[in-house]
Structure formats: C-alpha cells, structure tokens
Amino acid sequence: MAVFAVVYQILASILQLGVQRYAQGGGAPLLAWLSVHAADVSAMTAAVAMTAAFALVLRMTYGEVRFTGKLSGRTDRILAAAGGILALSVFLNLFLMRSGAVAADSSAAAASDRTRQVSLPLGILVYGVLGPLAEEVIFRGVTFHRIFRVCRERYEEKKSFLLAAGLSSLLFGLYHGNAVQGLYAAIMGFAFCLFLALGRNLAAVAVLHGAVNVMTLILARTGVYETENGAAWMAAALGIAACCGGYVLFQRKRD
Fold it and tell me: Are 87 and 241 in contact (CB under 8 A)?
C-alpha cells in the first residue's frame, strides 16, 4: 500500500508539473484551454500515474492476489448487500454535504468540484474502472489479507477479520488525503471488506466499488446532494441500507 501511494503521488505531481510547464511554453491559447479543461487534465494525469503505480505493485505481489472465482453465498444476499452499500454511500455523501463538512474542508471541497467538472466518459473510466480496480487489489486484495494472516497467528478468525478490516479501512481513509474523504473512504472500505467476506470474490467488490463511484459521480452532477429534499433522500437511503443489512444478517443467523 505504501509503495502504491508514494509512487502514485510522485508520478501524479511530476505529470501535473510537466503539463503546466508545457502549457506555459505554448502561450496564452494553451493556458486558456488548460484552465477550461483543468478537471479533465487532472483526471487524465491521475489515471496515468495510478496505472503505473498499480502495475508496479502487481509486479511486486505477483501470484498473491486471487482476483476472480465463483461467488460464494446466495444471490439474494449478494444483491441485498450490494444495494445496502450503494444506499450507505448515498447517505454518507448527503450527510457530509448537508452537515457542512465538505464546505469546511478546502481539500474535500476542491475534490468535489473536480468530480463535478470532469467529463462523464473520462470520469467513468477513472473513477468507475481504474480507481476501483487498483484500490481493491491494493487495499482488499493485498493489505487486508496480509493483516488478516498476521492477526490469525494470535486471534480467532472473527476477531482477526474485524482487526484486518478495521486497519485496512483506516489506511484506505488515510490514503485519500483529507479528513472528510478519509472518513467516507474508511466507512466504505469496511463495508467493502464485509462484502468481500460475504461473496469471497475480489472482482465483485471492484465492480461494486466502481458502481458506487459512478453513482456518486452522476448524483453529484445532477445536484441531488444539494437538493432541498436532501433530508428525505438521506432518511430513505439510511432506511434502505438498514433494511438490506438487516436482511443479510437475518438470513445468516437463520442458517
């Protein structure tokens, strides 16, 4: 995880600096174009840096990550868990927006603005495909499992899972770089660990992660998070998340 985060940040900074230097050399027209398409350029440099960092980590951990495999568990539980996590994402985004946490954190506010301004196809590629794929392999495929294996040497399986899920989710939050996004990412990271435990398929977690990001991207662009009916949306999302989570727990207890 540390290698991925450091390499990604260094490459992204170098690429952004290179783009700025190139734009300055191109004169006023290129600088004007860059200012208009700043969000797309930032997303593209992030995609290149993330791909390179991800490829390096894959080479270092070759054979360690089992990405595909048959989904375990009943289909109704998988769908209920996925629906609950999607609803949880909506609730958290609404809560953070309406509580003023995003506006109070300049870094989180800037990230939110870039998300709204990036073109939709590019946003889907970066936030819906590349980002989830790299983050799930790094944080759930490698970091979570390594911590879990260490914990299993001292604790029973359930406690080891909770410790590994908690620590890897905390690291996932810290990776996002600011308090607001970190809190959101840590909670969602723990939810993704639970989904991985339920389905035992990392590819399914990556798909769900991508669906969460694309849904967030579309809802942010349509203004749902700033609507006057935000409280009703928030209550509905929380209710759906609770019902889906309750259904999965009830079915597991019944078995």
Answer: yes
